[in-house]
Each structure stands twice: as C-alpha cells, then as structure tokens.
Batch of 3 targets.
Target 1
Amino acid sequence: MALGSVLRKATSRVVPLVVRAAAGSQRCLHYTHVCSSALPAVGRSSGFLLRRSFPASLFSYSTKAKSDEALLKVIESEITCAVESQEEQAEDAPPEFPFKIEDQPGQRIVTLHREYQGEEITVEVHMPDMVTGEEDERNEDEEDDDETETPSSSSLPLVVRVAKGKKPVLEFGCTAYADEIAIDSLSVKDPEDSEDQIAYEGPDFGDLDENLQKAFHKYLEIRGIRPSTTNFLHGYMVDKDAREYLTWLKNLQKFVHA
C-alpha cells in the first residue's frame, strides 16, 4: 500500500510537467512559424519600397543621357572636321559671268537668271555628282557587264530654260563636265499646259542630225552656257554642299542637345 501510494504521487507530479513541456514546445513551434512567414513579407515590402524609391524611368533616363552624350561627341567631332575642310572664302564669280545667282539656304538647287535680247534665261543648277580618284581605280578594277558607262569625272546637272514672254519655253537638260557641256534632252513646253498632260518632247538629242546638235550647242554658248561658266558653278556648288552639310550638322546638334 505504501509503495502504490508513492508511485501514484510520482506519476501525478510527472504528468503535468510532460503536458506543460509539450504545450511549451507547441508555442515555440507556432512562434517560429509566424516569424518565418512574416520575414518574406518584410522582404517583399522592402523590395516594393526600393522600387518606389528608384523608378525604372530613372534607369532608362540614365541610359538615354549617356547615349545622347556619346552622339553629341560624334556630331561635334564631325562639325570640327567640316569646318576645317571648308575653304576660307568662296571663289568670286569671274568678270564675264553673265548670270545673277539666286541661292536659298537649305535648298539643293541654285537658280540663275539672265535677260538676253528679249529672252528670259533661267538655269537650275543641281548638286554635282562627285567622282574621286578612289572611285576611278575601283571602276577600272571591276568588270562592268552593263552597257552603261560610268562617268570618269565629276559632273554638274543643269536645266536651262529659254522663254520669250508667254510663248512656249525651250528647255534643255544638260550635264557639264570640266571641258565640255553635253545636251541630254531638248523639249518645247507650253507654260499653260497642265502638269497632267504628257507632251511630246521630241526625239533623243543624240539621234538628231550632227549639224543640228552643233547648232544647239552654239545656241547655248551664246546665251552664257559655256565651260568657263559651268566650271565656276561646279566649285560654287561644291562649296554650297559643304555649307549646307555644316548647317545640317548644327541643326542635329541643337536637336539632340535640347
């Protein structure tokens, strides 16, 4: 009896301790679970706050600024080269130059005007087709299967119009070289005709009688279309091309810098 009493007392003391220990471990496990589940939430909120503090536009702006800065440096370098390559002063027109020059900045065409014995002569001068020494060597090395010949020297396209009041206009399409002027086309145009109408422009100039071709060359020469005129115009248009290119570069610089 005494021994059973002792065992019951020991058991009554041990069981509550085991129960309390188990409960305590459950509370610890619950606490650990709560903490571990809370930590990712803190990390997510911190990432959200970081993104809110440094928006993506800031990084894209930084990339854009660096790209624009690099582009500006290249443009500035090109401007420096363009300025250094320009001649100090454009060549003046020769004393015998018979035309008045109309040069609009930003345009690729220069217009010449002259009155000659009741005729109004207008010449459209286009940018020259430049041929360099490197292109000459390349053309010699390459075998061209086409029948079209590549020009071996620089040329200057011209459109010459001779008008007599309200009467039809005689229009020449010409190409000026260093020592000659070639007539590519010849047509008679009525200024009152609509642009939608396609008028007969005559045969190819090269198909005309040789004497007739020579007569038209003399016709233009008397009116001021001669090598001395076109050689000056060639240099003038090269200088204009350089000036227009420099202006174009400066406009690019202003746009990128803005």
Target 2
Amino acid sequence: MVKFYDKIPDDHIAWIHKQHMFFVATAPLTGDGHVNLSPKGIDGTLHVESNTRIWYEDLSGSGVETIAHLRENGRITVMFCAFEGAARIMRLFGRGTVHEFGTPEYDALIPPSARRPSSRAAIVIDVYRVSTSCGYAVPLYTFKAERSALTKWGERMEERDRAFPPRPVSESADSENAPVSGDAGASGEKTKVKIVTVDTEAGPRLYAEHSMKHWWASMNLRSLDGLPGLHSAHLTDATLETGIAVKGVDEPPSDGTVVILGNKVPKGQTGLAVGRLRVGKDGGLVGAFEALAPQSREEAVRLVWVFVLGLVAASAYGRVIQSVSGRLGYDTLSL
C-alpha cells in the first residue's frame, strides 16, 4: 500500500545507498513538450545530504533535458526500485537546482579530487514529498557490474581539453592542429588534434575537436524543445581534473550474431571459436582435440547429429556407386 511522508524516513536512507540505479523524471511547462525520463547509475554519484535534500553528480550525455527542464521550472521526481530483495518503489518529489562545472557551488560539492570524468553538473534536489509503494510488478534482477564506457570516453575527451584549453578566437593567432599529450607510448611522441571554431553566446571560440567542452558547446546547449541547457560549463577556464579512478567492465558485444556449428555467437566473439582451432594447430594432436571439443551440451548434440547424418550419407552414396558400377560392369575398386 502506498505511504506518503514529508521527508525521507531515516530507515530508508541506507536502502537508497544500496541501489545501483535510479530514475529521474522532468518535463517542460508546455503541454506538447517532451517529458524526459533518465536512468542514472555509477556508484558514488548519488548523495543523501539530509532527509529533505539529495544531490547527484550529472555525467555528460548526448542530451541535456533534465538540466533544461530544471532551469525552466525546477520540477523533478526521482524514483528508486528494489531489483533485489524485498519489493519497494520510492519516489522523491522535489525542486531541483543545477550547479554547472566551473561554478563555486559545483566546486563545493565536487572538488577535483572527487570529480569523475565527464562530470558536467551537480543536481541538487530539495525534497518536499516522499512516497513508497509495493513494487511487486518490478522483476528481480541480480547486479552484475558497472559499465566503464562512459567514464573512459570522458577521460579521452578531457585529455584533449587539457592539451588545448578552449579560448576565444581573438586570443589565438594559430588555429592549426595543436599537439595533444596522452598515451604517447615509450617514444614520447605527441599526437595531434584538429582545432575547430564554435560560435557561442560569448563569441567564436576555439576548441580541440572531440574534447569535452567542445561536446558541451555542440550538444548540450539546448533541449529537444529548444530550452536553454548548459550556460557556462563550455565557457569556463576551469581545468577538467578528475580524482576518481575509472571502474567497471568493458561493453559486451553489440547486436548481430553469426552461427558456428549451429550455435549463435554474439558479434565480436567469433575470434574465440577461431582461437580454439588455432590452439589445435599449434598444440599438436592433443591440442587439436581440445580445440574441437564441444563447449556446450547443445553443441555436442549437434555434432553427434552431423556425424550420424554424415555416416548415413556416405553409406547411401557407396550403395549408389556400387549399384551403378554393377550395372555398367565396372569393378568399383578400379574407379
């Protein structure tokens, strides 16, 4: 049964911290505007400051809907679901405030030593109502691991910002390719990035192409409905520093499969099957048998059927040859 509270119950705060995922919902004031719902994750980005205030570190993405909606009207709902353990849904109704990277408010909440790659804002939510309900329609899931793709992407982008800090066109006489430090290897050679000009509200500025601030200036300034998004993160001279190491696992293979011995193998894993054959080639007779050994019960059944069908086909072929040879008067052994 649904229950309502004026603040987050003390005994629910620990449960909130155990959740690996939450959802954020916002909407513009216009009746035909896009309602936005965003899943959020990454352990350590959500903070419960008190029974009536929470905040989370907003990592960069291709859109800026939540920030734009909060800038316009401040309305926001945060939802948590119990995917493990006893069923529960919790909604936090609140008013949200955006503190962009490079502002004093952002720095107070997320100093460089605590910042994650791609972090663009701190979203502070003052909670005025809380509801809990059963959540029996939510399936049970087991948490496997966090993904590392977003923060690794942010690391690569921000490395370019540090190598070529954005600047007004008037401050740079040279807009040609600039050296970028990075994983240059043992040789110490530097790679190069292209410098691009972007027209901003503060005038034309130079950015390292595919840098984080270039991304913000290109992708995060307007919502789907044209509402203002980021105001200053792409213009600030503050250096993009991080103090949190990247954690998580690499992305699993994308859609698309091939069939090997009747088994569907996800795209990107075909090399495993090839690798098994290579083991046999390099490892001698024993290695060959190990390489060709079925890796599942289904594959073993398919191999048996293929073998049986092969024997049947060979036997039938032999009988046909014998029959034809007999009629023509040939000795089958001489064929």
Target 3
Amino acid sequence: MSFRTPTLARHSSSRLRIPPSIPHVPTPQIYVSQQNLPTRGAYATAAAAAQVESPGSRRPLGSVVEDVLSSKDYVAKLSAFKARSGIELGNDASLVEALTHVSYRQTTNNQRLSYLGEKGAKLFVTEQIFTRYPKLPADALESIVKSYTERRVLGNIGKALGVPGVMLWQNSGSAKQDSQKEGAMNEGVISAKATYALIGALYQKAPLEARKFVHAHILSRDVDIETHLKLQGAKSFLPLIMREQGKPRPASRLIRESGRLSTSPVFLVGVYSGAEKIGEGYGSSLSEAEFRAAKNALTKHFMMDLKKVELPSDQEFVDDIDDGLQLQ
C-alpha cells in the first residue's frame, strides 16, 4: 500500500503554507516470513512441525517463540533437556530466549544473557581458585580461569548437556556477519554461547543457582594448575620468597650422583632453608638439577592448596537467605 505525500504550496509572500490535514501513515511492523525459518540446526524439524498458515505467509516477529512452543516435538525435547541438565528457569519462554542465537532472531536473543553468563562464570571460577590457592601469581590465576571458561570448554559442556539439540540458530544472513567477529560459524561456537546464556539466565533468576551450575559443570573438570606457573627465574626468585617469610636464605646441596664421569651422569640436588629441605630436583648437570630443585620449591610454595575453603559468596548468599526469612 502506498501513500501520496502532500505537496507544500508556496504562498505569494514566499512563506510555506501547511495543508490542513495530512493522512495518517501507520507505523510499519517487523515481520518474519515462514520461508525464512531455519532449515538447519537442531530446531529445523521442530520449526517445520509447527503449524503455519501458508508457505508465503508473513507473521509478526513476536509469534516466532509461540511457534517454537507450539511444536509438541520441540517442547518434548525441551522437557528432556531440562530433566537432563537440571536447569529450571520457571518458564519455557525464558529458556527459549537463552537458547536463541542472534542468527535466528535479531531482536530477542541470548546475546545479553551470554555476556552476563560469561562474566558470571569467570567470577565464580576466579573466586574459587583465588581463595583455594592464596599464593598463586596473578598471571597464573588469569591463565587458569581462562582454561576453565574458554569457549571450547563451554561448547563441550553444552554438548554433554544436550544444548545443540534444543538451541535455535541458522547459518545465513546475520549469522555470517556474526561469524566474522567470533571465528568460524559452527555448532560448537553457538553451543558455547548458549551455555553461557543459560548461566546468565540462572544468575538473573538466582545467583546461587548459577554458582551451583559453575561448580558442578565447570570447576569439576580436571585442570593441571601447575602447568600454568611460569617459573623461568626460579633460582633468583626463591631467595626473595624466603626473605619475605623470614626464613634463612636457600642453599643447594648435592644429595646423590651417578656416573659423573660417564656420558649420562645424573645429579640429585636438594635446596634447603636452614635445616629444612624445601625442594629437590635432578638433572644431567649440577646447574640443571639446582634449577629444578629451586623450581620444585617454588611450585610447592605457590601450589599451597587450602582444599576446603569458605568463599566470599558463601556469606553473601547466607545474608540474602537471612534477609528473606526476616521479610517473611
């Protein structure tokens, strides 16, 4: 439907005269065509199963989620996913939003929840590692948190929970533009973003639920903490640690050796602070064994593990519960 724009008449005095009335132009609505429903991704069959008016019909964008939830097949998959993952947000619409990638829907999607979930996951992981290993250097702490929360890891967690079977996405249009920003457009990337979004949705509902999810699915993974320590200058750094602790300056002593005059000698060196042996190491030369002994001593120092700790958020959640009880 088209409208003719009324022309403005010019008065003899060169002043503009505005017509007495201008036809009302209705505000255009944004629609999505049923032909543009995703043809790939986990939801393709569920979308096809949803009833549509006709192949060329155009429907308001807000009705897309209604179509999703009107599909018995998809709702059944969603119920199975909730039972498998233990994620319950209170209503299916919120869950669908967390599972909807921007490639599937430009307006209501999981971008904001994904951002919140990523920050929340890193917060809870940082809190745990920072509190449990109080002597870790900052660069090691940062590297460990990244190892726990990187996109590849979240994609694998999402796959284990069954996220790819219920997430909504399509590899066309804006998806290609989005892929240029975040790497190759593939199921793993979308699964990671959806998993972040689920954490964000849990955090929005109840931060304690988000923390439980992070501890159960992210922090439960085995990560070799020691490999994230950078101890190239161990021999020069160890005396500083000992002085800071008020202990005697470290000294290296040869504990045992074998084949000194052969082509394959082995030396075992211990590093001592006073009478206390704080580390030991072996090598094909005295200098190599001495370096490894100093590195072993530093590793023991930085890797001090408190194991069971009270996290800062523990008290915060207790206070919130107490406040809730008082309000009742």
